[in-house]
């Protein structure tokens, strides 16, 4: 049993139209598409955030040097961005 094709898809579409009505199907498809775009944007953001925090193994320095001392040596921590907006 594989992916439906041809007449099976037409029959499936007909059953969906009978069950949900032709007016609600475009809205449901639009909502699914919007949620997929949000999901892709969030996963892309997570990937780019992960790449920014840890360098690739080829980019890591071979020898560790001692950090400089003094007031200029203290690292400045940037605030984390939270994208909790609901659309």
Instruction: Give me the secondary-structure category.
Output: mainly alpha
Unreliable runs: none
In whole angstroms, how far apart are the ends? 38 Å
- Alpha-carbon Rg, integer: 25 Å
DSSP strand count: 0
Measured as a percent range, the helix fraction is 40-55%
Number of helices: 2
What's the main sheet like?
A: none
Global geometry: elongated
Mean of the pLDDT scores?
A: 75
Question: What is the percentage of strand-forming residues?
Answer: under 5%
Order of helices and strands: HH
List the helices and strands and how they pair.
Elements: H1 7-20, H2 24-53
Descriptive account of the structure:
- The chain is mainly α.
- It has a domain at 22-52.
- Helix content is 51%, strand content 0%.
- The protein is built from two helices and no strands.
- It is elongated.
- The two termini are 38 Å apart.
- The model has no long low-confidence stretch (mean pLDDT 75).
Write a concise synopsis of the structure shown.
The chain has helices spanning 7-20, 24-53. It has 87 residues and is mostly helical. The longest helix has 30 residues, at 24-53.
For the structure shown, list the relevant keywords:
mainly alpha; 87 residues; 2 helices
